[in-house]
Amino acid sequence: MAVFATPALAAPPAALPESPLAPHRAIYELKLRESRGSGAIGQVRGRIVYEFKGDACDGYALNFRQVTEIGNGEGETNVSDLRSETWEDGKARSFRFSARNYLNQQLDRDTDGRAERAPDKVKVTLSKPAKANADYDARTLFPTEHLRKIIEAARAQKGLLEAPVYDGSEAGDKTYDTLTVIGRPSETPPSDIEPPAKTPQLEREVYWPVTVSYFERGKAKDGEQQPDYQMSFDLYANGVSRALKIDYGEFVLDGELKELEFLAPTACR
Predict the structure, then answer these.
(1) Is residue 5 situated within a structural domain?
(2) Is the dihedral of CA 227, 79, 25, 200 positive or negative?
(3) By Cβ atoms counted within 10 A, which residue in 41, 188, 256, 267 is the most buried?
(4) Is residue 11 part of a domain?
(5) Is residue 4 part of a domain?
(6) What is the DSSP letter of 232?
(7) What is the pLDDT of residue 222?
């Protein structure tokens, strides 16, 4: 696995003051950026709807939906529709997840379960697709905790973050080793910023270019392991993302921010 690092800064300034994650609803339009390999993908289009609510007091709730239409260039098209709901305790002690994936409007996978953190392990209990139990490394992070750790590392001007992550994806039976590469911070809006991102909430927030690579744990063999997938985006200090790029290996998607709505914050103290 290749390791990248950002240049070290001499005498770095004090870490930026922490700001809470902002409840928001974002919609991203997906388009094909690049297709690779002999079985080249002819066309991809889709949409992500991402709704994030909650706080460190009452926990974080995420409703996520990704609809992707993939054409092979020969007139054949498949439509994947992933719908998931998760809730994560504000102190990352508990994580609940439920997801359904439809392929061409037929239910392909139904996953439901929860994870609890103990001092020496993370214990996962699945009720779907089949009842099962599994224990994972105590260092394993849940998704919102992982996001907070990335922002924390970015504020401290650390260029890399490595962490195992459990998000209940697919059949809920795997964890990922992740490598996050964090670029230099910026407080100036980029020249190509999407119109929905031209809001006071983002104009006053620092952001970082971030790339997160996901490697399925236990899958590595001899030689260099390639990531299962990779996500790149501009990450704001309040948790909002824009300029998405998702690399699945065989093809790469761009995700353009089309709508952004900030939701009412809660009174967490």
Answers:
(1) no
(2) positive
(3) 41
(4) no
(5) no
(6) E
(7) 53
Domain that holds residue 155: 24-262
Q: Model-level pTM? A: 0.88
Share of the chain above pLDDT 70, in %: 88
- Give one DSSP letter per residue of 106-139, joined into a string: EEEEEEEEEEEEETTEEEEEEEESS-EEEEE-TT
Query: Are the CB atoms for 79 and 104 separated by under 8 Å?
Result: yes
Q: Which of 151, 221, 226, 219 is nearest to 185 (CA)?
A: 151
Q: 225-269, pLDDT tens digit by residue?
A: 788 999 999 999 999 999 999 999 888 999 999 999 999 887 776
pLDDT in tens, 29-44: 999 998 876 666 778 8
Query: What band does 204 get if pLDDT is binned at 50, 70 and 90?
Result: confident
- Phi-psi map region of 237: left, alpha, beta (phi>0 left; psi -120 to 50 alpha): alpha
Residue 125 is assigned to a structural domain of this protein: yes
Distance between CA atoms of 89 and 71, rounded to whole angstroms?
A: 39
* Number of separate domains in the chain: 1
